[in-house]
């Protein structure tokens, strides 16, 4: 038998965590299965290995910022994408993790539909600009219309993989776009990053959203994740013709909720028609062609978050 088999020993991605590297070094001949650790690991062993990898990845991320809401349809993914853009445009090494497995809209909003991650031993996130890279289940689906039909444990496992098995590298910020609510995915991410820098809660001004977002704030307190603040989205419709603002969903509800819950209020984002078209075409709301009111709102929100984390 050729000695070529030796070249792979100790150099495979899985070898780093293997407790049998000594056997590889002293092995006189390859085992029949080609690797002394090729026997299937138990679920507990797999979990422990993944946990070690999670901790290793997290050690290279300075600040993890979770973006969540208690209610769907409040523009949470738009906020997550725009916050990532705002930080990256300040030359901060930024990652954007789309943890909304059932509604992965981040590839669309970032102009990355049709992209596929590559990598040996791990997945490489898709770069947008030099300082911004993205990972989403949307990159791995057959088509954008392919549904994810998984139970809770499978969803939690994939989210853990998106941290442990993705080659994020060194980051100043990892922005995590969570699905609505306080279920499995939110709990999984909170447990994956027990020392996360904090979370922002996105709401719209009306009580139908505020009542659920109060639950999101209490969830963060329960899992001991700092609340960086509340963002009120769709705070008022700005007419593209006359510039007059109309409070379609009410006004000021997010700020009042923040005061009641004794958490910071990070800012209010107006409802501007161009936001929809720009999001659907993957154009950033921080770019020069973005509506000024929206661009300035996100810049102020990024200022507030960076100030809180200094």
Keywords:
single chain, 310 residues, alpha/beta, Rossmann fold, nine-stranded mixed sheet, 10 helices, globular
Tell me the layout of helices and strands.
Elements: H1 21-26, H2 43-58, E1 61-68, H3 76-88, E2 94-98, H4 106-109, E3 126-129, E4 132-136, H5 152-164, E5 171-177, H6 184-192, E6 198-203, H7 207-222, E7 227-238, E8 245-246, H8 253-261, E9 265-271, H9 273-280, H10 292-309
Parallel strand pairs: 1-5, 1-6, 2-4, 2-5, 6-7, 7-9
Antiparallel strand pairs: 3-4, 7-8
Characterise this structure.
This protein is of the alpha/beta class and 310 residues long. It has one domain: 3-Layer(aba) Sandwich (Rossmann fold), CATH 3.40.50. The protein contains ten helices and nine strands. Strands 1, 2, 3, 4, 5, 6, 7, 8 and 9 form a nine-stranded mixed sheet that branches. The N and C termini lie far apart (59 Å).
């Amino acid at each position: 038998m050729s000695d070529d088999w030796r070249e792979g020993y100790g150099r495979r991605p899985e070898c780093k965590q293997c407790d049998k590297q000594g056997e590889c070094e002293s092995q006189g001949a390859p085992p029949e299965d080609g690797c002394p650790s090729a026997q299937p690991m138990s679920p507990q062993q797999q979990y422990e290995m993944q946990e070690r990898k999670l901790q290793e990845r997290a050690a290279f991320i300075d600040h993890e910022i979770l973006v969540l809401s208690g209610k769907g349809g409040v523009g949470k993914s738009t906020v997550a994408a725009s916050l990532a853009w705002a930080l990256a445009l300040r030359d901060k090494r930024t990652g954007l993790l789309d943890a909304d497995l059932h509604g992965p809209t981040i590839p669309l909003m970032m102009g990355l539909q049709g992209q596929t991650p590559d990598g040996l031993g791990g997945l490489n996130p898709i770069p947008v600009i030099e300082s911004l890279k993205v990972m989403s289940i949307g990159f791995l689906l057959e088509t954008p219309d392919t549904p994810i039909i998984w139970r809770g444990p499978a969803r939690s496992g994939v989210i853990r993989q998106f941290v442990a098995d993705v080659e994020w590298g060194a980051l100043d910020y990892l922005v995590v776009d969570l699905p609505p609510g306080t279920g499995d995915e939110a709990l999984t991410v909170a447990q994956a990053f027990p020392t996360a820098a904090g979370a922002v809660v996105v709401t719209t001004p009306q009580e139908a959203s505020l009542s659920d977002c109060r639950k999101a704030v209490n969830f963060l307190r329960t899992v001991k994740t700092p609340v960086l603040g509340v963002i009120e989205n769709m705070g008022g419709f700005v007419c593209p013709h006359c510039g007059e603002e109309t409070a379609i969903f009410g006004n000021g509800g997010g700020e009042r909720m923040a005061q009641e819950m004794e958490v910071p209020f990070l800012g209010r984002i107006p409802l501007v028609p161009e936001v929809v078209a720009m999001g659907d075409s993957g154009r950033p709301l921080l770019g020069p062609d973005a509506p000024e009111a929206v661009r300035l709102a996100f810049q102020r929100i990024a200022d507030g978050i960076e100030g809180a984390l200094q």
